[in-house]
Amino acid sequence: MTDTLDIAGTAYASRLLIGTGKYKDFAETRLAIDASGAQIVTVAIRRTNIGQEAGQPSLLDAVPPSQFTYLPNTAGCYSADDAVRTLRLARELLDGHDLVKLEVLGDPTTLFPNVIETIKAAETLVKDGFKVMVYTSDDPIIAKRLEEIGCVAVMPLASLIGSGMGILNPWNLRLIIQAAKVPVIVDAGVGTASDAAIAMELGCDAVLMNTAIAAARDPVQMAGAMKKAVEAGREAWLAGRMPKKLYSAAPSSPTGGMISATAGPGKP
């Protein structure tokens, strides 16, 4: 692995993170994860059984923590206090696991982040020893503040959670990327493979998605498509695209030293 995603001191070969919700069952979840090549999987503690419900099917059986890095998240939390309690529960359920995804929502209609409560929760969790990856708006000032608090990755939305609208404000994402000294991971809004490729071409370090895969007609095939898109976008970013030239035509082939159209056998 020469080009790795480094989060909180751990290197990952895959730059695609995927959620484990909204699939028809845990078997389909595992098939999609395998097709995606993801090594980090998010788990909504309030919605997924990882031991809270004894005797019920557990994600831990289908997706063993020994094979994947779990990223417990606070989906469904609308206050800093709720988010902190949820992640403390996750740490107990996962034997001291401290890498978490923080999200504090503003309202149930848009699921837009409440950045005030997010900052409050982040401050508490970092002081409590958590390694916090944080879902936030695409506001560069808020993103930088969360980094300064000690979050190990900032995760701005591309568009609203579950909307599939793709990247609506690439300019703000670029500002966040340019200023960040921690990984920037697009979280929310990706709808199809081209959205993931664009995020990576902008210079994002990774992409996290759930609905784009789980709600596809064929989730497993879509997971494979997303894997390829993230890899292609990353390679394009590393290669460096040609500059855009508005109204400045440039032929693909050199004009110097062209063979004369009138030249032929025996002619100079």
Features:
268 residues; three-stranded parallel β-sheet; alpha/beta; five-stranded parallel β-sheet; globular
Describe the fold and architecture.
By secondary structure, this protein is α/β, with parallel strands linked by helices. Helix content is 36%, strand content 15%. It is built from nine helices and ten strands. The chain has a five-stranded parallel β-sheet. Helix 3 packs across helix 4 (115-127), helix 4 packs parallel to helix 5 (140-149) and helix 5 runs parallel beside helix 6 (170-179). The model has no long low-confidence stretch (mean pLDDT 91).
Topology:
Elements (H helix, E strand, L loop, with lengths): L4 E3 L2 E3 L3 E4 L6 H11 L3 E5 L14 H4 L6 E5 L6 H14 L5 E4 L12 H13 L3 E6 L3 H10 L3 E4 L13 H10 L5 E3 L5 H9 L4 E4 L1 H4 L4 H21 L29
Parallel strand pairs: 3-4, 3-10, 4-5, 6-7, 7-8, 9-10
Antiparallel strand pairs: 1-2
Category from helices, strands and their pairing: alpha/beta
In the sheet with the most strands, the strands line up as 5-4-3-10-9
Mean pLDDT: 91
Q: In terms of quaternary structure, what is this? A: single chain
Main sheet: strands, sense, barrel: 5 strands, parallel
Name the beta content range: 15-25%
From the alpha-carbon coordinates, what is the Rg to the nearest angstrom? 22 Å
What separation lies between the terminal Cα atoms?
Answer: 56 Å
Record field, number of beta strands? 10
The coarse overall form would be: globular
Tally the helices: what do you get? 9
Poorly predicted spans: none
SSE arrangement, N to C:
EEEHEHEHEHEHEHEHEHH
